Amino acid sequence: MHTTLIFQLLVLLVVANGAPVLVKKALGDQLAQPFDGGAVLPDGRPLFGSSKTVRGVVSSFLATPLVALLMGFQWEVGALVAGGAVAGDLFSSFVKRRLGFPPSSMALGLDQIPESVFPLAACRLLLPVTLVDILVGVAIFVAGGLILSPILFRLHLRDKPY
User: Fold this and answer.
1) Domain encompassing residue 60
2) Inside any domain, residue 131
3) Which of 66, 68, 81, 99 could form a disulfide with 119 if both were Cys (CB 3.0 to 4.6 A apart)?
4) pLDDT: is 140 or 153 the higher one?
């Protein structure tokens, strides 16, 4: 197990998932165009929903490679983490819309696992990440998110306590 590498990748995961939240806090509704362009599928539900914005995707792809460089990684590692986190988040939103969950609602596991599994698995392209590293990283990310979310809500960094 690569303990230091897992910790570093978790930092990048926090950046990839946190950048859109911080930018939303800073800009409010400005520049918050839905990533899906408002597309509605034949089931009558949005593709991803209004809470997934172009601004959020762009902020993740700008912040994460920059932080990766500052940590001594290639920028591509940050881009992989951002891309995986965004893909996982969009996948979760897509599934939640199909299941009838409203935007920004909680779905335990579905909200955390894809946005950590996808980027950690993608990092295998550039880093010596093992299956055990991925499983440990996902477990820490899920547990950490559940523990930190209510705290971030109380600090007014999240809109909901989950």
Assistant:
1) 3-154
2) yes
3) 81
4) 140
Structure tokens at 29: 């509704």
Flag whether 161 is in a domain: no
Asked which of 96-105, 117-126, 133-142 is least confident by mean pLDDT, the reply is 96-105
Q: What is the pLDDT of residue 149?
A: 86
Bridge partners (DSSP) listed for residue 154: none
- What tokens does 122 get? 């993608």
Residue 162 lies in a domain: no
Each residue of 115-125: pLDDT tens digit? 999 999 999 99
Q: What is the pLDDT of residue 107?
A: 86
- CA 143/CA 72 separation, integer angstroms: 27
**Cα of 138 vs its chain's centroid, Å:** 12
Any idea what the Cα angle at residue 7 is, between residues 54 and 81, rounded to 5°?
25
| C-alpha–C-alpha distance, residues 131 and 120, integer Å | 9
